[in-house]
Amino acid sequence: MLSLTIPRVALRAAAPQRQFAAAGLRFASTKTLTEAVAEVIPQKQEQLKKLKADFADRSLGEVKVSNLLGGMRGLKVMLWEGSVLDAETGITFHGKTIPDCEKVLPTAKDVGQPGKEMLPESMLWLLLTGNVPSAEEAKQLSAELASKGKLPAYLEKIIDSFPKSLHPMTQFASAVGALNHDSAFAAAYTKGIKKAEYWKPTLEDSIDLIAKLPAIAARIYYNVFGRGDGSQAIDQSKDLIGNYAEMIGYGGNEGLTDYLRLYIAIHGDHEGGNVSAHTAHLVGSALSDPYLSYSAALLGLAGPLHGLANQEVLGWALGMQDKVGKNPTDDQVKEYLWSTLKSGRVVPGYGHAVLRRPDPRFSALSRFCDTRPELKESALVQLVQQVSNIAPIVLKEHGKTANPFPNVDAASGCVLYEYGMSEFKYYTVIFGISRAIGALPQLVMDRALGLPIERPKSMSMNALEALLKK
User: Fold this and answer.
1) Which residue among the candidates 239, 270, 352, 359 is catalytic per the annotation?
2) Which among 66, 98, 384, 430 could disulfide-bond with 360, CB atoms 3.0 to 4.6 Å apart, if both were Cys?
3) In the UniProt record, which is one GO cellular component term (predicted)?
4) What is the DSSP string of 14-68?
5) Do residues 209 and 288 both lie within one domain?
6) 267 given a catalytic annotation
7) How many CB atoms are closer than 10 A to CB 436?
8) In DSSP terms, which residues pair with 83 in a beta bridge?
9) How far apart are alpha carbons 59 and 468 in whole angstroms?
């Protein structure tokens, strides 16, 4: 039976106020994230009420047999507030493109940290509220996350009990699920809480989990690969990723630290239909707490068709480099691309289930590479950039790829490798830190809007055939 007996005091939205006031971190002109969410929710509730009243019977298109047999791809059957993915324009977060976010979201520099990239904390605020936080609000949120980032002793023991041979993602998902022991939502639900208040302990759990994910990931990194500080020490003055970089032994590497900020911010949300995001929503629709819901999401992210793609790209790119050398000609790259295609394989990192244009996330990572001297001098990174110019031409000529352009995986793993993080199996754990800042805000909104349990209708092939013969 799940442990639901831990008493929780901070079920009221005012709890973070007391924390910040005590720590001297509260800015007089700012709101806490909980207060900001509380302001938004009535507007969202009213918007949903009006949609139901005015358009409940409006058709969004027909369901075809190809949809049923093809993984429901493209069906408009899920409410997801944080982001929208358009085949032509790419991802937007509450209407803001990635370039927009890079311009307006508070950066490391804005909160007094070394670095120039936008903070995942800023993206989290945007995804939860639809609004851009001030630098003071982002700094305040960083402080709240740091104050909640330390792992409880029981979880450290659980993680340390895992064999080193157990895949890092299995360890990660298991550790996240174990935090259910301390769930504010589970405790409140057991005691009896009004449905209208479900979102408050859900938000509390979500912030707590996001705060602890870096330390969980760092402890696994240390146990499996022997790298990092070994203690997951948290500096209360650092931002979320500044602390994470220290924990995994890269605190002195400003380039990697800033890259991780950008990587985690732009990977956080990518609409709701992808496996990890959808799984968090699906499991959460049964009123499972955020720890259980996100643990399930991580197990989906671990699949080779979802979160492992950047590893496949990196392996392929290193194989190409071994074959063509560190400064290949365009013809050599083109020949290697054709050899991959003629062997019956796909070119990893190219194409996308939805996008029909270059992935804006790839463009953001490419821009980052162009600003860092150490990456501009990297033969591997430059090869990735070279391939991104040549591969679309080859793939168009090949004619079997709906989207011949690079997606985010074409660059993400190669940069981690260049900065010295060569442990391929760990890359998806970093992705798992990121995806929480998109999946968990939607879980809060699911509770705030009172969305029902998800229960689509399924059919057997015999039942389908019978229906089609009518």
Assistant:
1) 352
2) 98
3) mitochondrial matrix
4) THHHHHHHHHT---TT---HHHHHHHHHHHHHHHHHHHHHHHTT-------HHHH
5) yes
6) no
7) 26
8) 93
9) 21
In a domain, 465, yes or no: no
Checking DSSP bridges between strand 90-93 and strand 96-97, what pairing results, if any?
antiparallel
CB 269 within 8 A of CB 82: yes
Q: How many domains does the chain have?
A: 2
DSSP helix/strand/coil, 362: helix
Q: What CA–CA distance (Å, rounded) separates 219 from 217?
A: 6
- 398 among known catalytic residues: no
Q: Do 289 and 438 reside in the same domain of the chain? A: yes
Rounded distance between C-alpha atoms, residue 243 and residue 250, angstroms: 10
Catalytic residue among 182, 205, 409, 446: 409
Q: Look up the CATH number of the domain holding residue 359.
A: 1.10.230.10
Task: Retrieve residue 315's tokens.
Answer: 């392996």
The phi and psi torsions of 70 (rounded to 5 degrees) equal: -110, 30
Residues 302 and 328 in one domain: no
Question: Do 276 and 378 sit in the same domain of this protein?
Answer: no
Tens-level pLDDT at each residue, the chain (470 residues): 344 433 433 333 333 333 333 333 455 468 899 999 999 999 999 999 999 999 999 998 889 899 898 888 888 889 999 999 887 788 999 999 999 999 999 999 999 999 999 999 999 999 999 999 999 999 999 999 999 999 999 999 999 999 999 999 999 999 999 999 999 999 999 999 999 999 999 999 999 999 999 999 999 999 999 999 999 999 999 999 999 999 999 999 999 999 999 999 999 999 999 999 999 999 999 999 999 999 999 999 998 888 888 888 899 999 999 999 988 999 999 999 999 999 999 898 887 777 667 889 999 999 999 999 999 999 999 999 999 999 999 999 998 777 888 888 888 999 999 999 999 999 999 999 999 999 999 999 999 999 999 999 999 999 999 999 98
Name the residue among 372, 405, 412 with its Cα closest to residue 390. 405
Contact 275, 131 (CB under 8 A): no
Decide if 190 is inside a domain: yes
Q: Is 352 a catalytic residue?
A: yes
User: Which residue among 167, 181, 306, 398 is the active-site one?
Assistant: 306
Q: Alpha-carbon distance 211 to 16, whole Å?
A: 14
Choose the final residue of a domain: 418, 433, 458: 418
The pTM of this model reads 0.90
Same domain for 241 and 333, yes or no, is no
- Look up the domain containing 316 and give its range: 309-418
Name the DSSP letter for residue 453. Answer: P
Which residue matches tokens 């639900």? 189
Q: What is the CATH number of the domain that holds 441?
A: 1.10.580.10
